[in-house]
Write a structure and sequence with these properties.
It comes from Massilia niabensis. With 448 residues, the protein is α+β, with helices and mostly antiparallel strands. It contains twelve helices and 18 strands. It is elongated and about 80 Å long. The protein starts with 18 loop residues before the first helix and ends in a 5-residue tail after the last helix.
Length: 448
């Protein structure tokens, strides 16, 4: 189904909407109120786009059809579009006279999760992952929400150029879930082939606030992350004669416990830090001692020095546990250079500026402070490499009554990376569109 194909007409409805029409109505009851005339008109098309994206998710580095859909949406709005930037990356440039440049980024990839929401538009997609395994695929992190909001904001801005001056660079980024897409786009000349930004802007949904609200984090917002693999080598043998072998399962099991002492005994209690062992692979049969055991870890913190200390401590502990068992071969500790990210830092001055502006346009009660996340993102790469202020706004995604009931019961609604992740789509999308469009307009206000 074509989406937004009739949005921009020289003599159509959107050409008649000025910035005054968008912002002239005082906030009433919803975060999308300043953009309500436009959003009411385009929302059915946005909803169709969202459901299409949700039904047809694609894994990291496989976002070919998703990227084509994003490129088509931007072209219909009159943007200058370039595809296949850093893989399946999409860049759309919207120029409107002299002024600063704002980069607006969305991520596009999905996760290897079997959807269990029961929604009528639930994904049934099955695909081959990078390791060759067949897996179900789901937009379980809200990238479909992000993309739809991104397209909606582009529609608002393209239709209402009287309210801003400058350039907006819309970036559709692949491979966020494996922390590779941002670096790939930057390596492919994102900052030299296209207008260099003065500000970088993005959104990410969250179940920590209700739909209709926007959360603001000032300073560190998402944790630095490293993926670490450890292979412990032993000496295989019969399970009935363990004294004749060196059991790598026992060595790895001891290491799993000892690794937890890094955070509890080596990192300051005032510094957030995480060491999680996510997988433990060993053996083929109950009465066979294997030759090796493998662990996969995720390591997270908010400071580079803390992150480095934890990585060094992991290697030290792995070697010490092997030495204690008297193994002949040291463990192999590998830090994946691809699946890594630095901390995402929201520029404090930019956070204050947009927080104040969004409270005026979206309503005081709909813009709230929110705690940093221990999840990781590669969004921060854009502002870091460009050396410009950046911010990723948090977008509430839980139906408000459901959120209130869960909070009263001391529970939490399903969050990202879970099979039951199901945003309150209309309220969330409308707020996402409004937050992005209002933020860009604030940063590109015409000179008085």
């Amino acid at each position: 189904m074509p989406v937004l194909k009739n949005l921009i007409h020289r003599k159509g409805v959107f050409a008649l909407l000025s910035a005054a029409a968008l912002f002239g109505t005082p906030f009433c009851s919803a975060a999308d109120a300043p953009f309500k005339p436009t959003l009411d008109a385009i929302y059915p098309s946005l909803d169709a786009l969202y459901q299409d994206l949700h039904r047809h998710p694609e894994l990291s580095l496989q976002e070919e059809k998703t990227a084509a859909k994003m490129a088509a949406q931007l072209r219909k709005l009159g943007l200058q579009v370039t595809e296949r930037v850093g893989g399946y990356g999409v860049v759309g440039v919207l120029r409107n006279g002299d002024g600063p440049t704002v980069m607006v980024r969305t991520d596009m990839d999905a996760l290897p999760i079997k959807e269990q929401t029961g929604l009528p538009y639930a994904s049934t997609v099955v695909a081959k992952a990078g390791n060759g395994d067949t897996t179900s695929v789901m937009h379980a992190c809200g990238h479909d929400i992000h993309m739809t909001s991104w397209v909606g904001a582009a529609a608002i801005l393209a239709a209402n150029k009287a309210g801003w001056r400058g350039t907006v660079v819309f970036v559709g980024q692949p491979a966020e879930e494996i922390l590779q897409g941002a670096k790939a786009m930057l390596k492919d000349g994102l900052l030299t082939r296209f207008p260099k930004p003065d500000f970088v802007l993005g959104i990410h949904d969250t179940n920590l606030i209700p739909a209709g609200q926007v959360g603001i984090v000032s300073g560190p917002a998402s944790a630095a992350s490293n993926s670490v693999d450890i292979t412990f080598y032993g000496k295989g043998g019969h399970g009935a004669a363990p004294h004749l072998g060196k059991d790598p399962v026992l060595i790895a099991a001891r290491a799993v416990v000892t690794l937890q002492s890094i955070v509890s005994r080596e990192v300051s209690p005032f510094e957030p830090a995480i060491v999680t062992v996510g997988t433990f692979h060993a053996g083929t049969k109950r009465n066979v001692i294997p030759d090796e055991a493998k662990l996969e870890l995720t390591v997270r913190s908010y400071k580079s020095e803390v992150q480095q200390h934890m990585l060094e401590a992991i290697a030290r502990i792995a070697k010490a546990e092997s030495a204690a068992a008297g193994t002949a071969r040291q463990p192999l500790v590998t830090v994946d250079p691809k699946e890594a990210s630095d901390v995402v830092i929201n520029d404090p001055a930019l956070a204050a500026r947009l927080g104040s502006s969004l409270k005026k346009s979206l309503g005081e009660a709909n813009v709230v402070p929110i705690a940093p996340s221990s999840a990781s993102e590669d969004f921060g790469e854009f502002g870091r490499v460009a050396k410009v202020p950046s911010i990723q706004l948090r977008l509430g995604m839980v139906e408000p009554k459901e959120y209130a009931a869960a909070k009263a019961a001391g529970k939490q609604t399903p969050g990202s990376h879970t099979a039951n992740f199901a945003p309150d789509r209309e309220r969330t999308i409308r707020t996402g569109v409004a937050a992005l469009a209002a933020s860009v307009m604030e940063l590109l206000k015409p000179a008085m």
